[in-house]
Structures are given as C-alpha cells and as structure tokens.
Amino acid sequence: MSVRAKYYADWASAVLGVGLGLTVAIFLESTTRSDWAWPYPAIISVSRICALVGTYFALVGIVMVSRISWIERSVGHDKLVRWHRKLGPYALFLITFHVLLVALGYAGNEGLRIGGELWRMTRNYQWMLPAAVGFLFFVAAGVTSYKRVRSKMSYETWWTIHLYTYLAIALSYMHQVLTGPMFLNHPLNKYYWEGLYLLTAFTIIYWRVVIPVFRSFRHDLRVAEIVDEGSSVVSIVMRGHKLDRLNAQGGQFFSWRFMTKGQWWIAHPYSLSAAPTSEEMRVTVKNLGDASGAVKHLKPGTKVFFEGPFGIFTASKATKGLGHAVLVGGGVGITPLRALMEEFDPSVEVDVIFRAASEDDLVFKLELDELAEARGARVHYLMGSRKQHPMNASHIMKYVPAFRYSDVYVCGPTPLVDAVRAAALACGIPKERFHAEAFEFHAE
Ligand SMILES: Cc1cc2nc3c(=O)[nH]c(=O)nc-3n(C[C@H](O)[C@H](O)[C@H](O)COP(=O)(O)OP(=O)(O)OC[C@H]3O[C@@H](n4cnc5c(N)ncnc54)[C@H](O)[C@@H]3O)c2cc1C
Q1: Which domains, and CATH codes, for the chain?
Q2: Stretch 111-117: mean pLDDT, rounded?
Q3: Among 219, 223, 374, 387, which has the minimal tally of Cβ within 10 Å of its Cβ?
Q4: How far apart are CA 335 and CA 340, in angstroms?
C-alpha cells in the first residue's frame, strides 16, 4: 500500500472506529440498572447491543462497496470487496442473535414459548412485520454469499437476492427508532442514527446512481466497432466525448451496461485492453457465458452506461525508481496487461509473459509484438501444459532473470495468479511490488 493509500486507509479506519464507539455509547447512555436484572432483562439488553452493532456493520459494509471514487482509487476495489465480505457475516450473526435473544428475553418475561413470542411481537409492535421481512432478506443474502451456495447459482440470481439487502436495511429502520429504548426520549441518539442511515443512503444514491448516470450522459459513450480477435474473443471499441476527464488508466476496469435488449439490466466488469484516449476506450471479451457471448452481436451506435474506472492494477502503482516490470497474463487475462504496456514510463524495462494453452489462444499477438518493438519490451509466449510451464520462481527466471528485482503484475485464472504469487514470495518480493487482478466474481 502506498503512503497516500495508507493515509486514507488510516483515516477511514479512524472514522469507522469513532462510529463504532458512538454506536456503543448511545446504548450505554440509555441503559439503566434495571435493564441488567438477571436473566430476561439482561438478555434483552444484550440483544439490543447486538442489533446496534450488527446494523452499524451492515451500514459500513454497504458504504464499502458504494464505489466512492477516492476510496476505490487508494484502497482498490478488490480489497474493499474483501473487507465487505469479511464484515458481512458479523453483521448477519449479530442481527440474528438480536432476533433470537430479544424473543427469548420477552418470552421469559411473559412466560410464553419463543415461537409464540416472535409471532406476538411481529403482530403487536409497530413496524415489526417489515423488520421481520427485512431480516429474512438479510439472511437470504448472507446464506447465498457463502462460497458453496454461491457457486451453485448464476451471478444474476445472486445479484438480485443481494440487492434486497438495501431493502432489508431500510425496512428495519422504523422498528428501531419507534421501539428501541435507546432512541425513545433520546433525541440526540436518534439524530445520530438517522444521520448514519441518511449518509449511507446518500452514498449509494450519489456514487452508484447519480455519478454513473451523469457520466454516461456527459461522455455519451457508444459502441463504435466490434472486432473479432479469434478464439471466441471480441474487442468492443467504444467512442465518446472528453473521456480523459474520467482519469482512467490502462489496467483498470469498468462495469459496463450495454443498452440493448437482454443486456441493459445487468452490468459486467471488463478491463480496458488499450490505454484510453480522450475519445476512445476498448475492452476485449472472451465468450464465457450468456452476456460475454452476446457482445459480439452489439450494433455500432449502441449506448453504453458505465461505472468506473475501478482497480489499482495500474502502472502508477509501480515502485518508484525500480525500473523493471514483469507482466504475466494467462488467456484473456492478457488484455489489461496489453493496456498496461502502454502506460509504463519509457525508462521502465518491461517483460511480458503470456501463458496460453496453445497458439490459437494468443490473442493480440501482433499488437503485443508491435508494442514490444516500439517501446523495447520483451514478450515471452509460454504455450503448453502446466507441467511444461509450472510458473514457479526458477521457471519464470529462465525467461526473466531480473524477476526478483521487479514489480510483478499478474492477471489470469486463479491458479496462475496463485502460482506467480508463490514465486514472488519465494524470491522475497515484498507485497507492495506484487499486483494482481483476477477476472473473478467479486461477490459483494
Ligand atoms: C475485475 C474484472 C475484470 C474483468 N475483465 C474481463 C475482461 O477484460 N475480459 C473478459 O473477457 N472478462 C473479464 N472479466 C470476466 C467477465 O466479467 C465475466 O466473464 C463475464 O461477466 C461473464 O458473464 P456471462 O454472463 O457471460 O457468464 P456467466 O456464465 O453468467 O458467468 C461466467 C462467470 O463470470 C461471473 N460473472 C458473471 N456475471 C458477472 C458480473 N456481472 N460481474 C462479475 N462476475 C460475473 C460468474 O460468476 C461466473 O464465474 C472480468 C471480471 C472481473 C471481476
């Protein structure tokens, strides 16, 4: 992490820490001695702190993936999604504890069974039914985000279920402020909580709706050309106005929404496969399913909505003054590396390793060779099986002896990324000099 990124990350952590502190403080401020009379009132009190902290984590988790551009630029999309995924289970468990403990506490107080108490609360308390529905949405989003469950469903199904978490959080709000003793007769606590919800709503609406829609209209991006690159791969050349204002760099990706029948409703991430200009951007897509297979039918003139740029897989993240970069691409993972090649300062020596199963899979061979000649880079084409090219340190150093003294960029299937990461580690390459992008479902 660069010094600037560390600075932002430290600030973000400090703000989140203060938020957590305030969340606990509003509970402590409103609790009384009688709330801790053992056992049932105490159980209800514990359930309340679970609800507050769980909801706080859920809100923070949403803000983490709300695409705030300066956070994305310094921390990186991958890392934010990873943090979001780490926080998600805590939010879910705490809110589930809240539901179970509050039912247990009230059931004990009133001498009812837990099921009966849940039913009574849902029917009698204000806004409890919407909160219960919200809880079910939240559980559905949590369960479908577990690797095993997720791998069994399509991205679209997972995404639609996940969208309901926004509704879940919104539905739970009213029961909190109308029935939670930390808010009743505690106007400051209520303002704080309202502020948190409003800030979250604003972040999502501004960064995920207003900014992308505004930019999409301002730059009026449209498909200009579809180029068949062979091996089920096509390039989409898009043209628009003043694209330099996006400050995009080769190696970054956007979420693209092609406004045509059957494709407009879901966005897909694709990396730039050439350094962007003020009028043109290009992505290169391998047919791996419905949407990626359909792009070859896009008509010139099709309007493109986009979110981005995202990612910190860029030449500007290379170590200053090191002077050597090794770019390792596997299959269609070569596309952002092709764009990156154009972005390095001419003083940086560049070696590209293109790992492919066979010669047929060498997309962009001509472009890579031309670019290499123009900037004095070397491209090593490694075709064949994993046995022939194990991609460990000694194998890589056969082609690039200066590997251990380089910045390493790798993009491709996870096994390739993992192998190169292990090779870098074995050579003692520090984490800051290893940059990876996996073309994988970043579950949010
Ligand atoms: C950061 C990033 C950059 C990428 N860049 C490129 C690129 O430059 N060129 C390229 O060919 N591919 C790229 N991909 C992969 C590409 O996004 C998927 O292949 C494509 O979205 C598959 O959609 P589908 O409907 O055709 O396939 P499906 O059959 O629906 O899915 C195939 C795989 O792609 C995943 N996937 C599907 N939709 C999405 C989505 N909206 N977001 C994330 N993952 C999804 C699925 O989970 C599954 O693992 C990139 C992926 C990521 C995460």
Answers
A1: 3-214 (1.20.120), 220-310 (2.40.30.10), 315-438 (3.40.50.80)
A2: 87
A3: 387
A4: 9
